[in-house]
Amino acid sequence: MKTDTRAVRIPGGPGPESFQAFFEALDAPAALCDPMLRLVAVNEAFHRFCADHQATVEDVARALAVAAVPVDGSSCDMELPLAGKPGAVLTMSRRGDVVAVRARNDPELARSRLVMAERALLEQARTEGVLLDLGRSVAEVGGEEELVAAVARGVKELFPGRSFCIRITDSRTGGLTSLYAEGRMKEGAHEPLVLLQRAVEKLNLGRSTLPTTGRVTVLSEVPLLFLGSTHGVSAPLVASGQLFGAINMEYPEGLDADIQHDERVLLQLASQVAVAVKNAKLIDELTFVRKYLEDLLEKANALILVANREQQVVVFNQALSALTGFRKEDVLGKDLFWLVPENEHLRLSQVIAAALRGESVNSFETRLLSRDGNEVRVSFATSSRLAHHGEVDGVIAIGQDITVVKELEKRIIHAEKLASIGQLAASVVHEINNPMTAVATYADALLQRSRTTPGANPADQEKLRKILESSHRILRFTRDLVSYARPAQDRPERVQLNAVVDMAVGFCEHVVAQACVSVHREYTELPPLSAVRANLVQVFVNLITNACHAMQPGGAVFLTTRREGQEAVVSVRDSGTGIDPKHLQRIFEPFFTTKPEGKGTGLGLSICQGIVENHGGRLTVTSTVGAGTTFSVRLPLSVD
Question: What positions does the domain Histidine kinase occupy (predicted)?
């Protein structure tokens, strides 16, 4: 039997006023609505319910305005989204044009809401912790590669199970400088860089600031980069109005995630990363500029030396190392005065004091010590080294090696002295020739008369003959000396090589006698060759002189001439101590000499080599320590 649940009006019962009083006296929160769920009446308990949940009746009315109207004769529940206590539920029952509303608290729903809120707070704390750790990591990285690796670790921790791609670009050209991908990317998906239109507008990234190379585009949707992805989010890396790349994150099929939440976190992450990328690129640029300037100073074709206020060397470039023989490691940190001789310290102190006062010195000539104990002459221009706050922090010296120049100046002065002596010698020779010619003439006349005079003393004739020979020898020597001293005309002539060597021996007789050595000659008949006689004589004079200087008394010089094919070969061999192998390869360098100070110029062999090569020949040397040295002059023979 079915029970009729419709309300029945009892005849003679209470009137509407009684029902109103009953409605208001109910302890349960209750309200009445019209069919459009507009509140018509609420009791006092309903007001208290709203107050307990930190809401108003108007808040409830707004919630009901968007709720679904129940069907006539049915009931339904709706969760009341109030900012106060969670778990508020409204039960709506419709009967005709009246909807009765009863408010209640649902403990299970409240607990569920609390759990969800707790989880949200924990997730927020985890996210903030990861972002904080990431911020520390990117602040400590030393370059772009390390930065990308740190960001990749942060993205994997924040968004597990997602595919993602980190692209770092050049802010000027848009060219890709770094790429990291977690997942299988589509072919050619890494370029161009596609930015989301609304993200560009939100970040105020003007189109005029984007590269115009076609490597960056702006679209309303960002295409998916990874195989198997269903949807994705992206965030551009923007700092100071410049684009430095983008982070794309995509979701494989079946992954359940809050995309809106992920996008918010990704944008927050991107803002952190963009600043770090900008700083990393600035650091890379500064490192590059610094390295470039260091290489420029180190490899410059000039002597560069920098010292601080404590006069400690802080820059010592390759040119200085090559000049002095000291390695950079030997000099850096040492006192500047360690590099110069003691008698130069006072002058150097004055220059340093001027630099520390902000004054510069355009040309300061001094001497530097070298590893082998010798000194080199240098000329420096000095200026002050300024610190970042504008104070003088030290002195910078840039200069050049003037050792060769100074040596040349000395040689020029010496050559001028020799020229003066040569002019004086020519006058002396002229004064000698006149009386010696008379002596020779009279000695020859007396010798001829003695030979025709009967009973003449043979001893007197021998004396006259020796006087005549000596006179002719003096005349011949003075004539050759004037010929040798006269500037060469560089005009080749036909010469006999053996005669040239003999002339050189004649000029060296005094040196040979002073060294107490002997000269041995072994000549082979040679055809004449085309040469400048005086220049070849100079070559052999120098070689014979060097041989005499290399021997102790009792030594011997061996002069040999021979023919080898179309070459004439002259060998000058001594029985001296030989040449150290480390010096042998430098023997023909200008100003290089193994003789004591003041005993040699270091120019002789260099000049000899030049003369021989100008004649189309070669000058070579072989030496054995303790056994002697042999110089060989090879000259081409004239082709008839």
Answer: 427-639
Residue 103 host element (H or E): strand 98-105
The verdict on 39 and 156 lying in the same domain is no
Number of domains in the chain: 5
Is 254 in the same domain as 386? Answer: no
List, in sequence order, the alpha helices (H) in 516-601: 533-549, 581-584
Q: What pLDDT, on a 0 to 100 scale, did the predictor assign at position 598?
A: 43
276 shares a domain with 134: yes
Strand ranges (E), 214-253: 216-219, 229-239, 242-252
Answer whether residue 416 is part of any domain.
no
What is the rounded CA–CA span in Å between residue 605 and residue 589? 8
Residues 495 and 472 in one domain: no
The segments of the chain whose pLDDT lies below 50 read 1-8, 597-602
Cα–Cα distance between 443 and 469 in angstroms, integer?
Answer: 9
* pLDDT for 499: 92
- pTM exceeds cut of 0.85: no
Q: Any residues with CB less than 8 A from the CB of 281 and at least 6 apart, and which?
A: 144, 171, 244
CATH number at residue 402: 3.30.450.20
E strand map for 253-353 = 303-308, 313-316
> 227-233, long-range: CB within 8 Å, 24+ apart, which pairs?
227/183, 227/184, 227/185, 227/186, 228/184, 228/252, 228/253, 229/163, 229/183, 229/253, 231/259, 233/259, 233/262, 233/263, 233/266
Domain boundary among 434, 460, 484: 484
177 and 139, same structural domain? yes
Provide the strand spans (E) within 309-434: 313-316, 361-369, 375-386, 392-401
In whole angstroms, what is the distance from residue 633 CA to residue 539 CA? 9
Residues 203 and 345 in one domain: no
Instruction: For residue 339, give the DSSP letter.
Output: G
| Structure tokens, 452 | 């025709």
Question: For position 118, what pLDDT does the model report?
Answer: 57
Q: Is the dihedral of CA 438, 440, 443, 447 positive or negative?
A: negative
CA distance 220 to 194: 10
Kindly report the number of other CB atoms within 10 A of residue 266's CB atom: 22
Q: What is the DSSP letter of 185?
A: B
| Angstrom distance (rounded) from CA 237 to CA 75 | 53
Retrieve residue 282's tokens: 């600035």
* Structural domain of 85: 24-105
Do residues 361 and 474 share a domain?
no
Q: Is residue 18 part of a domain?
A: no
Sign of the alpha-carbon torsion through 11, 17, 20, 21: negative
| pLDDT for residue 518 | 92
Q: State the Cα–Cα distance between residues 109 and 115, nearest whole angstrom.
A: 10
Is 48 inside any structural domain?
Answer: yes
Q: What share of the chain is helix, strand, coil (3-state, %, to 5)?
A: 45, 25, 30
Task: Label residues 474-507 b or e (16+ Cβ within 10 Å = b).
Answer: bbeebeebeebbeeeeeeeeebebbebbebbbbb
Question: What is the rounded (10 degree) CA torsion for 88, 92, 98, 100?
Answer: -50
